[in-house]
Design goal:
Blueprint (H helix, E strand, L loop, with lengths): L6 H7 L1 H14 L6 H14 L3 E5 L2 H14 L8 E5 L4 H8 L4 E5 L21 E7 L9 H10 L2 E5 L7 E2 L2 E2 L6 E5 L13 E5 L2 H10 L4 E3 L2 E2 L10 H31 L21 E4 L3 H10 L27 H9 E4 L7 H12 L4
Parallel strand pairs: 2-3, 2-4, 4-5, 5-8
Antiparallel strand pairs: 1-9, 6-7, 8-9, 10-11, 12-13
Helix pairs in contact: 2-8, 3-8, 4-5, 4-7, 8-11
The chain binds pyridoxal-5'-phosphate (PLP).
Length: 367
C-alpha cells in the first residue's frame, strides 16, 4: 500500500536529531516559554524574512490572534469584512467569524485553484478591512494585483501560510508578503511538529506584541491581564523539534518538487487534469491535487490498486452545517473543485518506484 502520507517515515529521516532535541528539553526541566521557543522564533522569523515570529498553539489560533489583535488595536471592529477564497480549509473562515468579522467569499480560478484576483475589487465595500489569501496546496496565491488592491483601499493583507512553508514570490517567502501571516505546524504540514503548533509572522511590532500577549492569557506581566486572552502557547518540545525540521525544510521541499516534476511530465489521462504548473519557487507541493469529473471512481480505482488518496476538501465552507446561513449561496467554481478534487500521494519520502507506480496507475484509469 502506498500511503497518502508516511509520517513515521518523515520523522525517521531525522530521527537522531529529533530524539536529541527532545531529550534536551526533557532534561532541561523547562517546558513552556523558554529557550527552545526563543530559538525557534528567531530562526523562523529569519527564514520567513520578517522581524517577528510568535509561536502559538496551532495554525487556527495563529489566524484568530492576528484578527483579534487588529481589533484590540482599533484597526478593525466586529462587523468589518474580510475577503477570503471560498475554497479553503475551514480554519481560514473560522478565524474570521470567531472575531465577529464577516467573510466575503470570493471564487478561485479553476486552473490555479487559488483566489481569482480579478474578482476581488468587486467584493470590496466600505466595511472591508482585510484580504486573507490562502496559499492552498502549497501554491503561492499572492499576485501583484492583490498587493495593489490592498494598497489602493488601505486593506490589511493577511496570509494563511499553513500549507506553504518555504514557498516564495519573487524571492520573498510567503508569510512575509503581507502585513501578517498565520502558520500551522500540524504534523502533516511541510514543516510539521510532533503534535500541534503554530506561529504568527509580521514586521509590525505592535501587532507582534499584541498577538504574543493574547496567546499568553492576555498577560504581559505575570498575574496582570491586559486582555481576556487564552492559553495558546507553543510548548518547548514542539519548538525544539521544529528547529530541527526547519533546517531540513528546503531539502524536503526540493524532494517534493522532484515528485511533482515526474507527475507533470508523465501523468497523461483524458479524465485527469493537473492544475497549472507553477515554477518551483511558487509551489512547495504540500498537496498534489488533480481534478477529475470521475473523481470518486478514480479514488476507488487507486485504492483498489493500493494507492491511498484524500479529498481536500469534500465540502466547501459555505455548505457546512456550522455555517447554515450560507448553505443556499452558490459558488459554482468552488463547488466544482470540491466535487472533482483528489489529492494523490506526495512527500519527501516517496521512492521513485512508488511515484512511477502512481503515474502508471493514474494513466491506466478508465471510468
Ligand atoms: C492546517 C490549516 C490551518 C490550521 O492549522 P491547525 O494547526 O490545524 O490549526 C489553517 N489553514 C489552512 C489552509 C490549513 O491547511
Amino acid at each position: 500500500m502506498i500511503k497518502f502520507l508516511d509520517l513515521k517515515g518523515i520523522t525517521d529521516l531525522y530521527s537522531d536529531e529529533i530524539h536529541h532535541a527532545v531529550s534536551s528539553v526533557v532534561d532541561s526541566g523547562w517546558y513552556l516559554q523558554g529557550s527552545a521557543n526563543k530559538q525557534f522564533e528567531t530562526e523562523y522569523a529569519n527564514y520567513i524574512g520578517t522581524k517577528y515570529a510568535i509561536g502559538c498553539a496551532n495554525g487556527l489560533d495563529a489566524l484568530i490572534w492576528i484578527y483579534r489583535a487588529y481589533i484590540e488595536l482599533g484597526v478593525m471592529q466586529p462587523g468589518n469584512e474580510v475577503i477570503v477564497p471560498a475554497n479553503t480549509y475551514i480554519a481560514s473562515i473560522l478565524a474570521i467569524t470567531e472575531n465577529g468579522l464577516k467573510p466575503m467569499l470570493v471564487e478561485p480560478r479553476k486552473d490555479t485553484l487559488e483566489i481569482d484576483d480579478s474578482l476581488i475589487e468587486a467584493a470590496i465595500t466600505p466595511r472591508t478591512k482585510s484580504i486573507l489569501i490562502v496559499h492552498l496546496y502549497g501554491r503561492c496565491a499572492y499576485t501583484d494585483k492583490i498587493g495593489a488592491v490592498c494598497k489602493k483601499y488601505g486593506l490589511k493583507l493577511v496570509e494563511d501560510n499553513a500549507q506553504a512553508h518555504g514557498c516564495r514570490f519573487e524571492g520573498r517567502r510567503t508569510g512575509s508578503l503581507g502585513d501578517a501571516s498565520g502558520h500551522s505546524f500540524y504534523p502533516g504540514k511541510n514543516l510539521g511538529a510532533l503534535g500541534d503548533g503554530g506561529a504568527v509572522t509580521t514586521n509590525d511590532e505592535k501587532l507582534a506584541e499584541t498577538v504574543r500577549t493574547l496567546a499568553n492569557y492576555g498577560s504581559q506581566k505575570k498575574y496582570v491581564f491586559k486582555y481576556c486572552g487564552r492559553n495558546s502557547r507553543l510548548d518547548e518540545l514542539q519548538a525544539a523539534v521544529l528547529s530541527v525540521k526547519l533546517r531540513h525544510l528546503d531539502d524536503d521541499n526540493a524532494k517534493r518538487q522532484r515528485v511533482a516534476e515526474k507527475y507533470y511530465q508523465n501523468v497523461d489521462n483524458e479524465y485527469i487534469t493537473l492544475p497549472t504548473r507553477l515554477s518551483d519557487e511558487n509551489n512547495v507541493y504540500h498537496i498534489f491535487p488533480v481534478l477529475s469529473p470521475k473523481r470518486d471512481a478514480l479514488q476507488k480505482y487507486l485504492v483498489d490498486n493500493g494507492i491511498q488518496t484524500l479529498i481536500h476538501y469534500p465540502i466547501p465552507p459555505h455548505k457546512q452545517e456550522c455555517y447554515k446561513d450560507w448553505n443556499g449561496l452558490s459558488f459554482p467554481i468552488t463547488e466544482e473543485i470540491h466535487n472533482q478534487e483528489l489529492s494523490i500521494p506526495i512527500s519527501q519520502v516517496m521512492t521513485d518506484d512508488e511515484v512511477d507506480f502512481v503515474i502508471k496507475t493514474l494513466n491506466s484509469f478508465k471510468p
